[in-house]
Amino acid sequence: QVQLVESGGGLAQPGGSLRLSCVTSGFTFSDYFMSWARQVPGKELEWVSGVYGDGDTAYLDSVKGRFTISRDNAKNTLYLEINNLKSEDTAMYHCAKARAARIRCDRSVCWDLWGHGTQVTVSS
Predict the structure, then answer these.
(1) Which residues, other chains included, contact 123 with Cβ-Cβ below 8 Å and sequence gap of 6+?
(2) At CA 50, angle to CA 114 and CA 75, rounded to 5?
């Protein structure tokens, strides 16, 4: 069964850090560009970061320097570390799988699977 399951969200203070995880199953994880995207109520899903199977990364300009995406192909797991949390980081964070292998996919139109998400709330 193809599945993505996120965890690691929660309530954090401004300036703090969180590490999100996405455990995957049912496909050859290392073949696919994997992404993190976030959504707040009333707004569209926003891509924030992605990583190729070989570890090359890409980021939304506004999160560069604070977000770090990584993957462990042996564990079929994707990670997102968020540092210096800001209130505007509050959102539901989803991991997403590209439809085609080895192709960068930073828009929802080319994702064929995403998880239910993990909520990140930044508040003092």
Answers:
(1) 11, 13, 14, 87, 90
(2) 70
Phi, psi of 103, rounded to the nearest 5 degrees: -115, 130
- The answer to whether 120 and 18 are in contact (CB under 8 A) is yes
Rounded CA-CA distance 49/28 in Å is: 20
* CB distance 67 to 58 below 8 Å: no
Under DSSP, the state recorded for 92 is E
pLDDT of residue 67: 98
Helices (H) and strands (E) in the chain, counts: 0, 11
Question: Within a 10 A sphere around the Cβ of 106, how many other Cβ atoms?
Answer: 18
- Residue 17's pLDDT band, with cuts at 50, 70 and 90, is very high
Cα distance between residue 105 and residue 124, in whole Å = 35
Note the residue count of the chain: 124
Q: Which two tokens stand for residue 40?
A: 């707040």
Query: Cα(80)–Cα(71) distance, rounded to whole angstroms?
Result: 9
Distance separating alpha carbons of residues 56 and 75, to the nearest angstrom: 18
Q: How far apart are CA 98 and CA 33, in angstroms?
A: 6
